[in-house]
Every structure is written in C-alpha cells, then in structure tokens.
C-alpha cells in the first residue's frame, strides 16, 4: 500500500509539472491517471517509500548532481577530442568489474551513471558484476579498473539508495 | 546575464551533438560508435534543453524542457545498454584492435573480435 501511495504522489507531481497549470480539469484528469497508474504498477516501485522521506538521502542526491555533472562534462570533452584527433586514439575493450552496492535500484543508477560518463558503457549487469565497454582500457586488473571507472559514484550512491 | 548563459548552454549543446554525430561516422565498430552517439548526444540534448529553460524561465515551456532533459538522462543509458548487450549476445564483431572481451570469455563463447584483414 505504501508503495502505491508513493507512486501516486510521484505520478501526480510529474503530471502537474508537465501541464504546469492549476486548472481544475487538468487536476481531475491528473488524479485519475495517477490513480490508474498507481493501482496497475504501484507494487513495482523499486524504492521503499519510507526511504523517500529521509532528508539525509535527499541531501546526498543534491550533492551527487554537481559531481555527476562535472564528471559528465569532463569525460564528454575527452571523447570530443578523441573524435577530432586525426589518428583514432582508441584502445577499446570489455572489462569486468564488481560493485559493493546492495540494492537493485542503486546498481541500476550506477550502471546508468557509468554509461553517461563517456569512455565507458555498461553492456551487462548481473548480480554485483558489471561488464563495461571501455574506449581506452587503462588497466586490465579488475580492482584497479573498478576504481578508475566507478570513481566517486559508489560513495554517493551507497548513501543515497542503500 | 541569464540570457547569455542560455545562449552559451544552447551553443554547447549543439556543438556536442555535432561532435557526437561526427563520432558516429568516424569510429570503427558498433560499440565505439554507440559511445559517441549516445553520450555526446545526450549531453548535447540536455544542454539545449537547459538553454531553453534558462531563456524562457519558470513557465510551462521551461519546466517541460527540464522534465524532457530528465527523461532523456534516465532513458538513454537504458536503451544504449539494451542495444549493446543484444549486439554482443547476437555476435556483432568487435573492432580488430580491441584489447580484450571478458564478456564473451565469461560466457564461454568464441571470440568475436574481428581478425586482422
């Protein structure tokens, strides 16, 4: 039940942001749509609702955004330079790394964060093992490679989701 | 001031999108192309959306642009992951200079790294 309520609140908030008006017709339709979605899909909500109300987690989420934006921009410039360099400087490979994150949602966010920082792309996520396509393999040692790829992500994500 | 920031964000976004498309043409195999195509273009799209938001401010248009950026950020890596995983399992060849492929090794399959021509 808690999950369904959480889903309803979240869905309704997104709806109101999308229409961005307080006209009563939009509100009524929004309640209807959010209710329907919550009843149909609510139990699939991947986060415990009690965790959503924890302000410490929200603080870490806010702290994560600038870190992620910085990494993303830095790595994007790196790939852009690679695209422009005359001789293609590529040394691609697929490496296997392990994560210490426990919950599914945290692992999914880790995989997505890795994919969005260019140079690395998650091709498979199985339990705690991630297979990463790396545009320039820096190290073939799993621990060393893991530290380079995951960087500060794990530190933040474990505080947000675990 | 905010208008200038908006223009800078828009131009950066367009620039990264162009570079991403260039990478799509220049890179040698599917996986490397996906690196350029999905990510530079994601940052480019988010830059454009952020520029639209900065120029129009908090209104129906600006908030929609921000939400679009958020949706793109969440969905693009999932789609890229699915495409790359499907291609690997199907056996689309890796570039000949690929250093290692632990995914296929662990599955016990034959190497799908393209041999020297």
TrEMBL record, chain A:
It is found in: Cell membrane. The chain crosses the membrane at residues 6-22, 57-73. InterPro entries: Cation_antiport_E (IPR002758). Keywords: Cell membrane, Membrane, Transmembrane, Transmembrane helix. It holds the Pfam family MNHE. GO terms for cellular component: plasma membrane. It is a multi-pass membrane protein. GO terms for molecular function: monoatomic cation transmembrane transporter activity. The keyword Transmembrane helix applies. Its main location: membrane. Coiled coil: none annotated. Belongs to the CPA3 antiporters (TC 2.A.63) subunit E family. This is Na+/H+ antiporter subunit D. It comes from candidate division WOR-3 bacterium.
UniProtKB/TrEMBL annotation, chain B:
Keywords: Membrane, Transmembrane, Transmembrane helix. Signal peptide: none annotated. This is Na+/H+ antiporter subunit G. PANTHER family: ANTIPORTER SUBUNIT MNHG2-RELATED (PTHR34703:SF1). One of its GO terms (molecular function) is sodium:proton antiporter activity. The lineage of its organism: Bacteria, Bacteria division WOR-3. The chain crosses the membrane at residues 6-25, 37-54, 60-84.
């Amino acid at each position: 039940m808690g999950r369904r309520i959480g889903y309803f609140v979240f869905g309704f908030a997104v709806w109101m942001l999308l229409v961005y008006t307080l006209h009563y017709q939009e509100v009524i339709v929004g309640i209807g749509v959010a209710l329907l979605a919550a009843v149909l899909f609510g139990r699939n909500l991947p986060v415990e609702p009690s965790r959503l109300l924890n302000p410490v987690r929200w603080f870490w989420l806010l702290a994560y955004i600038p870190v992620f934006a910085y990494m993303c921009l830095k790595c994007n410039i790196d790939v852009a330079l690679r695209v422009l360099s005359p001789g293609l400087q590529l040394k691609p490979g697929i490496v296997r790394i392990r994560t210490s994150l426990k919950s599914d949602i945290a692992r999914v966010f880790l995989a997505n964060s890795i994919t969005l920082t260019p140079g690395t792309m998650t091709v498979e996520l199985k339990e705690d093992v991630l297979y990463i396509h790396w545009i320039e393999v820096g190290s073939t040692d799993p621990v060393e490679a893991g530290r380079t790829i995951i960087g500060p992500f794990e530190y933040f994500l474990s505080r947000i989701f675990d | 001031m905010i208008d200038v920031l908006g223009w800078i964000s828009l131009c950066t976004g367009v620039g990264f999108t162009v570079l991403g498309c260039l990478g799509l043409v220049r890179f040698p195999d599917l996986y490397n192309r996906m690196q350029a195509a999905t990510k530079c273009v994601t940052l480019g799209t988010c830059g454009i959306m952020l520029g639209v938001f900065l120029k129009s401010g908090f209104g129906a248009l600006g908030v929609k642009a921000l939400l679009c950026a958020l949706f793109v950020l969440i969905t693009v890596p999932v789609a890229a992951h699915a495409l790359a995983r499907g291609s690997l399992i199907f056996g689309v060849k890796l570039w000949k200079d690929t250093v290692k492929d632990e995914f296929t090794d662990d599955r016990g399959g034959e190497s799908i790294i393209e041999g020297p021509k």
